DNA sequence: GACTAGGTGTGATTTACATCACTAGTTTCT
DNA sequence: AGAAACTAGTGATGTAAATCACACCTAGTC
């Protein structure tokens, strides 16, 4: 489990045993049941989470009570309501387990401490943020340029395993389409 | 002009005169005419740009030749086709002047050099990337949850000056709506 | 001073998708 | 084992927005 995190980080920057021990010292582990909330709307966001195993959904609930899924977080993903986390303001999103899930938790304080202690980790987080930002821009582009069928096909192509793991209802809410319309696609 | 950049950076991290001189040494200045391209599709992306004055549009052109505007970059914004820039692969986006524009140019090599030389600047770029990523996620949310009228109202509220500076045609292409539909909004 | 290219507004028609309504299978919980 | 909750498919209907088509206006250009 630690090895998985280490391998994940070392895809960006290499670490000595001591450095990795220092990383671990800033994290806590948590086991969560399906349907459990890691972040709830209006509450303060204590942690950013690294998913070891399982699956999370990051959700915005609109005024009409309809759920919109911003992203799924599976193995090796970092997830949080980052706006609320970094600015320490109440969450507008919620983060909930789709399956039983194991995560590492990183508090904002520990995040800053870790960056100060290990510049390498700051570089690691810079890379994560950079490519996270690029990925979000790709999603904007996909919403601007494609219809539902195409978005569904793209998702199938890029994350076939994810599509198999989740219900059509969740998938529809991620694609920004009604459950019924998704059900009618080829 | 340098003062503007310095003020911009110092909103995140404070710099000594020497450190700022070092930042400037990594940048080159460029003056561009309206309609001029800073980045063109299929070409390699040499620079990330800091906009001193003027206005740029970041555009994706789809197979049908229709333009989709991913973002506008005005004073104090950093812009590029960051995917192509960081991975040094051909651009899929283009970056074009909407007005006469003055920019500072930062090559990827100089970006890495600057981060290595001044950890403060790495922290600065980490902040930019973090909040860039949050902003992109907000845009996804807005596309998922709101209709055209609401998106237009939101934009008017957040960037009233931008809306005045650009044509309705460009605005429509940013909001992901046809020119005609935008024209029919209240 | 005519000529071209962008930019804008408005009607008519079409289309992709949402919503409503119903049936039915499958998990989960007690 | 039976109830409750979640999931999935499909028909009928409604609607927001795209598309097509046209008129008009302004700014730059030879």
Q: What topology emerges from the helices and strands here?
A:
The structure is a homodimer of 186-residue chains.
Chain A: H1 2-10, H2 17-25, E1 28-32, E2 37-39, E3 47-53, E4 56-61, E5 67-73, E6 78-79, H3 82-87, E7 94-97, E8 101-107, H4 108-117, H5 119-145, H6 148-158, H7 160-165, H8 168-175, H9 179-183
Antiparallel strand pairs in A: 1-8, 2-7, 3-6, 3-8, 4-5, 4-7
The structure holds a DNA duplex (30 and 30 nucleotides).
The tally of helices of chain A reads 9
Q: State mean pLDDT of chain A (0 to 100 scale).
A: 96
- Count of discrete domains of chain A: 1
Apparent shape of chain A: globular
User: Strand arrangement, largest sheet of chain A?
Assistant: 1-8-3-6
Q: What is the CATH topology descriptor of chain A?
A: Jelly Rolls
> Which spans of chain A have pLDDT < 50 for at least 5 consecutive residues?
none
């Amino acid at each position: 489990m630690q090895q998985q995190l280490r391998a994940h980080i070392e895809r960006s920057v290499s670490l000595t045993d001591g450095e990795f021990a220092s990383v671990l010292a800033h994290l806590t582990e948590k086991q969560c049941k399906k349907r459990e909330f890691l972040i709830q709307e209006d509450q303060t966001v204590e942690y950013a989470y690294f998913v070891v195993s399982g699956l999370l959904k990051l959700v915005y609930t609109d005024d009409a009570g309809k759920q919109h899924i911003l992203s799924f977080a599976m193995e090796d993903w970092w997830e949080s309501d980052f706006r609320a986390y970094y600015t320490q303001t109440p969450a507008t999103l919620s983060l909930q387990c789709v399956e039983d899930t194991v995560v590492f938790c990183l508090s904002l304080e520990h995040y800053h401490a870790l960056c100060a202690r290990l510049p390498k980790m700051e570089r690691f987080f810079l890379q994560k943020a950079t490519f996270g930002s690029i990925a979000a821009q790709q999603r904007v582009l996909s919403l601007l340029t494609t219809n539902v069928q195409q978005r569904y096909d793209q998702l199938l192509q890029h994350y076939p395993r994810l599509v198999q793991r989740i219900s059509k209802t969740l998938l529809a809410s991620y694609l920004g389409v009604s459950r019924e319309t998704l059900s009618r696609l080829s």
